[in-house]
Amino acid sequence: xxxxxxxxxxxxxxxxxxxxxxxxxxxxxxxxxxxxxxxxxxxxxxxxxxxxxxxxxxxxxxxxxxxxxxxxxxxxxxxxxxxxxxxxxxxxxxxxxxxxxxxxxxxxxxxxxxxxxxxxxxxxxxxxxxxxxxxxxxxxxxxxxxxxxxxxxxxxxxxxxxxxxxxxxxxxxxxxxxxxxxxxxxxxxxxxxxxxxxxxxxxxxxxxxxxxxxxxxxxxxxxxxxxxxxxxxxxxxxxxxxxxxxxxxxxxxxxxxxxxxxxxxxxxxxxxxxxxxxxxx
Length: 281
Fold this sequence. Notes:
alpha/beta, Rossmann fold, four-stranded parallel beta sheet, three-stranded mixed beta sheet, 8 helices, globular
């Protein structure tokens, strides 16, 4: 993170939410708080589940405790995840789907955060907007399938290892769409009176891993590259905890007057172009 930017309205403060020092003072000065801090790498939970506890649940608890000590009502905007739903029998999956049974420690940690935020909002007179995000990708992506494929092809343009069977199918949302949706929802939420509200934020379609591989291969000018599928675990998943098919229903979000600009495929293409432009400089 840069220590400063050319914007007099922005003050960047470095703070570790796991062991906060300045947090109480910082939140006391704010009315609107966007809580995006987390470790978003789902597959790490299979080898290091404590990481998701400390960097997701503990950090959220520390933030909420700072809000409680401020003794002033705040509005918290929390970026949650599609993985809180687990494997759904209804696709697209709406916000009122249940029961929520995550299959990854990442999904479990985010659902725990949602519960904590809801309880603190009701107990200590705060308001909370929870946005459950699909896979967010874009120019600064540093993990996930698109980044993974670009790195692997740069290392070996003759063969691309693909985790799972390649038929994992999910929604992808371009980062500018994500930001627009969150800002739009914040404005709507600020006009309302709900103590807490939850919205899915994603695209209106899905794309499978095999198609993503083809897009990246073409973008990197290696159309004849050999694909090597690992076969995966539990019926072709990329790793333990990988939800094989995910598509969020954004019907509730659309009813507020917002719709994504890019499809999942367009988001992948835009991201590939951006990442390749960076990697070749």
